[in-house]
């Protein structure tokens, strides 16, 4: 099933930013994808996201979920060390988020740092597989603010974890079964801060390339205040 996943990716600078600090990665093996979002307002965010994408693109996959997750984690740790060192030399913070999806052995694994996301659409129901490493997510979890208040909160852009943030990388991983017909979406926060879950779910019903185009067009129609990047992966069935 994983060998025949249909996938597409698209990244856009948006309507306000002058540079695209996002990067998307499609692994040549056809079972591994990632989105990285260079931290806005920080030096060389585009370089940081490209560094992560390059490290992940070079990972050698075996088709074994556990082994390949370890290889991806090692690549992210190496990227983190490289970005941390660049920040030390520059005497300023350089960082990027990352969200990755691996399909192997009839399962999926999501690996992430920061507030880029992985969603799954199954049977018309959209589920966020990742949990944002962000100040507003902590406020929502603590019951201090409501989920619908998060997007417009003053701390909406503050992440609590990032590649390049700390020498010891805190990477989260979740695994689940991959089922025929599943559709996965990886995105930078430029998407989910403009579109609701219901809007995202409706647009994911299309084939991957058309879905990517529709998602980005919808964000641009809302003024796209940030870069926006999407990867859509559909399993046959």
UniProtKB/TrEMBL annotation:
SUPFAM superfamilies: PP2C-like. It comes from the Bacteria. Pfam families: PP2C_2. Residues 7-235 form the PPM-type phosphatase domain. This is Serine/threonine-protein phosphatase. It comes from Sphingomonas longa. The lineage of its organism: Bacteria, Pseudomonadati, Pseudomonadota, Alphaproteobacteria, Sphingomonadales.
